[in-house]
């Protein structure tokens, strides 16, 4: 492996929800990760989101030698220069804005840069991929997409239904992302995406982050690096080499209670097993070639071995995310906090 | 008019959202109203709902000679005996439970007796009648209906879409209400209900409260008492005489700002005019024969003149609501607060 290449790259992980600690930050740096899109909330509402941000502020204070907040795409380049790991805040549900259109800008002022319109279930904005039927983006959802476009907050449809995703791509005046999912043609999971969605995403200038969460992979935890890289190659053919990146969905060192929170929030009296089942309720076993963030160089090596050029590898490992965010995080004129 | 009959009746108004004051309570008593289903919240969430309940507690303290809280159907009969106006709490949206299934029972403990699953827009539970498309009751919505059934909180689909309403009737193990709406065959408004819905509601043992809000009436504010009573008669034929009541939707002495809150909540940056329009944005003019709660005797007289028997008039004016609530407000065994 050309380890030298990996060290030169701007490496971006398009989604993690790890149990953040100094140990995990050190692993990110050891793995050469320049920036991670960190999920700060799932189902947390306004007040709880502020508590999570306060916890992050404390982490920045304690571990400022290792990590730094990302308040613009320029901060990603700065993190690379400084040898730090940039932390970009994101939400996996729209609960941080509750029912209030004005909260989009307020959350963006607090550096919430990416927000999913739904997490599996129907939300006030759109439909999740676990509902029986998807009636698309709602009246409130249309206004929220416009507002996210205005303030420079990225729409993420990773956990949304097919129709809502296609409508969001169409309605949004700025490209959107699916930060962590794989093609359904590779592995037919509810969370993976049809070629129709992926083509529309690519054509609109959007971005797909490939997931390394075993439930999204062919053969689950036994999926090989070769199989993964084959999927990357065929998706590059479908969407374009500039429209793909990584979004590991790594949930390192999280207890089962966190998985249950992700799956159930507060909405269910019965246990919902999400992508698992009653007999398989726990976190999936990790991939042998991607146990934690220290294994990012394995991805670079795998892509090189698969025949991608150095430029293509750089794109997939982070350059595409960086170029996407260069534009996407820019507020439009008139946003109050510019 | 047989004024004596009206004075004997248990008169129930299936929905009001007036700007509550001693004057309005006096008008309710003067009009012979035994109980009013009072909307305490539209889009208010948990904390705000508690504030509204605290305001009501203060009203009960200040005006205990005129009004009393309704904590069971027995309290309605008690109000009649005492010559007071019973106040039954209801919500016109599901925002008081936010995203939390456990809040159904908590709100029922605080005497929230009726809750709409939606208010015009898509909610976390079901679809409102103003969305372009209705995909029915959501995963969370199914759980909430079961929980409302369990604790004895009435499902109200007055502002919901057709499909969601039919599904709620089907899913709910206990009969539901449409507390304030009219047949679309009488006046084709988005808020009025199809014969399909009304038949299903009647057959399931549910109840329709006829609205006196001019936007729900043929010829609007010019609708005559005769036309209204004709609608009652034809709906009695469709649904059964035991399945109908009154739900005036009286919003007395409310400023325009409250109408705007009802229509827009916090979800819209643009003004949404709801049933009105930019050129007709204000409250509609009141009916000449139903200006406020003092005019309830006009309804009794109109129904008598239309040929309903005294027993039928008594049913429509309140007995049907009372018998419905006798069962509907009973918690099932196991509800913590019984």
Keyphrases for this structure?
homodimer, 338 residues, alpha/beta, TIM Barrel, six-stranded parallel beta sheet, three-stranded parallel beta sheet, 12 helices, 9 strands
Can you walk through the features of this model?
The structure is a homodimer of 338-residue chains. Chain A has helices at residues 3-8, 22-30, 46-62, 73-82, 103-109, 139-151, 162-171, 195-203, 225-239, 256-264, 296-305, 310-328, and strands spanning 12-16, 35-41, 67-69, 85-91, 112-116, 154-156, 177-178, 207-210, 244-246. Chain A is an alpha/beta fold. Chain A has one domain (3-328): Metal-dependent hydrolases (TIM Barrel), CATH 3.20.20. In chain A, strands 1, 2, 3, 4, 5 and 6 form a six-stranded parallel beta sheet that branches. A three-stranded parallel beta sheet of chain A has the order 7-8-9. In chain A, helix 2 (22-30) links the parallel strand 1 (12-16) and strand 2. In chain A, helix 11 packs across helix 12. Chain A is globular and about 50 Å long. The termini of chain A are far apart.
Topology:
The structure is a homodimer of 338-residue chains.
Chain A: H1 3-8, E1 12-16, H2 22-30, E2 35-41, H3 46-62, E3 67-69, H4 73-82, E4 85-91, H5 103-109, E5 112-116, H6 139-151, E6 154-156, H7 162-171, E7 177-178, H8 195-203, E8 207-210, H9 225-239, E9 244-246, H10 256-264, H11 296-305, H12 310-328
Parallel strand pairs in A: 1-2, 2-4, 3-4, 4-5, 5-6, 7-8, 8-9
Helix pairs in contact in A: 9-11, 11-12
């Amino acid at each position: 492996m050309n380890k030298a290449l990996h060290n030169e790259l701007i490496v971006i992980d398009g989604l993690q929800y790890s149990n953040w600690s100094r140990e995990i930050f050190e692993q990110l740096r050891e793995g050469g990760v320049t920036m991670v899109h960190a999920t700060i909330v799932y189902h947390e509402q306004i007040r709880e989101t502020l508590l999570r941000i306060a916890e992050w502020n404390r982490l920045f204070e304690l571990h400022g030698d290792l990590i730094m907040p990302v308040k613009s795409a320029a901060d990603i380049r700065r993190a690379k220069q400084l040898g730090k790991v940039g932390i970009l805040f994101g939400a996996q549900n729209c609960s941080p804005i509750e029912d209030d259109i004005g909260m989009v800008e307020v959350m963006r002022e607090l550096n919430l840069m990416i927000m999913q319109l739904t997490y599996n279930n129907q939300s006030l904005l759109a439909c999740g991929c676990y509902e029986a039927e998807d009636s698309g983006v709602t009246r409130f959802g249309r206004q929220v997409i416009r507002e996210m476009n205005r303030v420079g907050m990225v729409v993420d449809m990773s956990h949304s239904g097919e129709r809502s995703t296609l409508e969001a791509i169409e309605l949004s005046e700025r490209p959107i992302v699916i930060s962590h999912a794989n093609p359904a043609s590779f592995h037919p999971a509810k969370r993976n995406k049809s070629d129709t969605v992926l083509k529309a995403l690519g054509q609109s200038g959007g971005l797909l982050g490939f997931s390394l969460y075993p439930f999204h992979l062919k053969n689950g935890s036994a999926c090989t690096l070769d199989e993964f890289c084959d999927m990357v190659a065929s998706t590059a053919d479908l969407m374009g080499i500039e429209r793909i990146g990584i979004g590991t969905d790594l949930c390192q060192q999280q207890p089962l209670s966190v998985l249950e929170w992700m799956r159930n929030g507060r909405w269910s009296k019965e246990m919902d097993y999400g992508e698992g089942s009653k007999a398989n309720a726990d976190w999936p076993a990790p991939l042998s070639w991607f146990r934690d963030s220290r294994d990012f160089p394995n991805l670079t090596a795998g892509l090189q071995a698969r025949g991608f050029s150095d430029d293509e590898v750089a794109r997939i490992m982070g350059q595409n995310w960086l170029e996407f965010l260069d534009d996407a995080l820019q507020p439009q004129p008139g946003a109050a906090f510019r």
